[in-house]
Structures are given as structure tokens and as C-alpha cells.
Specification:
- The protein has 368 residues and is of the alpha/beta class.
- 46% of the residues lie in helices and 16% in strands.
- The protein contains 15 helices and 14 strands.
- β4, α4 and β5 form a beta-alpha-beta unit.
- It is globular, with a radius of gyration of 28 Å.
Length: 368
Amino acid sequence: MKKLLIVDDDGYSRSSFVSQLEDAYEVEEAESGDEALAKLAEADFDVVLSDIRMPGMSGIDLLEKITDRHPDVRVLMISALDQVDTAVEAMRKGAYDYLVKGEVLGDELGLRVDRVLEVQELKKENTRLKTELSQRFSFGNMVGKTKVMDEVFELVETVAKSRSTVLINGESGTGKELIARAIHYNSPRADRPFIKLNCAALPQDLIESELFGHEKGSFTGAVKQTKGRFELADGGTLLLDEISEIKPPLQAKLLRVLQEREFERIGSGVTITVDVRIVATTNRNLREEIEKGNFREDLFYRLNVIPIQMPPLRDRKGDVLSLAEHFLEKHNAENEKEIGGFSEKAIEILMAYDWPGNVRELENYVER
């Protein structure tokens, strides 16, 4: 059962709240802010319901101390009708919600507490997932012991701390997206969005809308206002995967956003300013694409601030066995298998093959 703490100097009010909540929660009482802080120091509580007006330490003072000392605890303020303005001030200071005495009773009280607990669980799950992602993409979990990969990891670790635009070049399957995610999750932007757009997977006439968003009615099928990837990635990182697939007319608009950090949604004249770090990937030689007239030279130089070249697996054969063992462990866990390793013959075959599909092909073979 979730654990609640009711804080109120009025014994009748405390008893009323306890009687309404004790069937669904483990409930304790405190008659002052000092007693509440003592109980919070001794045990874990999920939610505190605190009266605003109390002698000695007020509910607002208690809220500030709980926010400082116990940031995972959610606080609901209990106010009288003439204290609503103070309750709103409490929400600005970190309270989740407020209840008016005598107006929130029975099932509604339980529903309000449940809502707080749901938000709390979502935040805990969000924190857990972010921690899991940061661990998954930590440099210590990257597989590669060859000199060429050591150089890549060293560069990535340095680049991650900066705001610079990164261009990752390499054949399909070499791990370009993995490196892009490692840059984000090891950067100061790690707790902000990581948004990806696969430029090769969308028709050209949809990419502009996906990047910049659109207003309702701006074209056939635009039934509502929609934010683009730049707007969704504000404060975080935008991965433009296979950027060489964007055609020159749209490249010009993209260049402007990279230069000015501002754009308009399709069908809107309102300028939106964003703070987005760009990481782009390509499996093509962009210098050759420039010569062919397929890619703008000025956009290339805007993207190519920090270039990272991902080597093909055939040029890092020393990593094949380490990668294979890593994928074996991964797919053993995912498929509830206990395959112990590779025979000498299997290792010979793995090492003799050139892996034209690179790391992705190797993982597919191990899974199969």
C-alpha cells in the first residue's frame, strides 16, 4: 500500500482525512510541521497532505523543506476557502495540487490522491528509463578494442560535451545511430529530447512538414496543427539520419535553420526559435554528391563541423569476436537461451567473412 502523511493541527480534520483514506492507503498523522519532518526523516512516504495554516511552521514552510529534503515526495496542500490564493502560490513553489476543506470528500479525495501517485510513478519510470538509456549508451558499454575504434570513442567522448554540429559518415550497419545516441546521452542535453528523422524513409514532399511542422489547413490532409522535429527537439538533439537523401530545394531551408536557429511552420508566418544540437549521418560521400550537384556545398560545411568516420567491420576484424559475444549475451537474455559460446569452426568462419552489412549483419547472424 502507498504511504500517506496527513499534517494538520486540527485533530478533527486529520481524523476525517484518515477515515476517508485508510482503506486504500497506509496513513499516518502529524499535528505540526516539525512532527511531519521528523516522520519523513524516519520513514518513506509517497504523498503528504498538509494544511496551509498551522501554528509555528506553516504549510508553505513545510512544503519548501519537503521539496528541499525529500524531492521524491509529492505534496497536496489543504486550504480553507479564503486561502485559495495562498494555495496557488504553494503550487508555484512545488505543490502538486490543493484541496479545499469540506469540498473534496470520499471518492473524489481518493481520486485526487491516485492522480498524484500516477504522476509520481510516471516520473519514477521516466527517470529509470533515462538512467537505463544513459547506461546503455555509456562509453564503457561500447564494444570495440581496435585502435581505429579507440580513436572514434575518444573523439565521441570529447564531442559529446560540446554544442557543435556533428556529421557521422559510414557504410550502412556500421553503428552511426549508436554513436549519435552516445553523443546525446553523454552530453549536458541528456535529460532533454533525442529526436530522430530518417530522411531516406519518407517521401520528399513529407520531409519538410516532418522537419518544420505545419498549420491546420496548410495543405490537403493537414487537419490539425502539428509540431515538427525541430520544435520537438528544442533543448535537445535532432538526428538527421541519411541527410544526403534530402533534395537541394529543401536543403536551402535546412541551411537557414542551422544558421539562424529559427523557422516557420508550413502555412504560418510566425517565427519559432529553437535551441537544437544537430547530428547528421550519411552513407554517401558528400563531397562527391556536391560535385554531382546533389548536395549543397554550404550546407555540407555547416554540417561538417565535427566529422566522425565510422570504419566498416572488415577494417576492424579484431572486434568481430567481441561483438559476436556481446550480441550472443544480448540475444540469450532476450530469447531465454543459454548458448555458451562459439566453436573454433564458427570463429574461423566469423573471422574469414568480410561482413558487407557490417555490425548490423553480424548481429543478425548471431541472433539467427
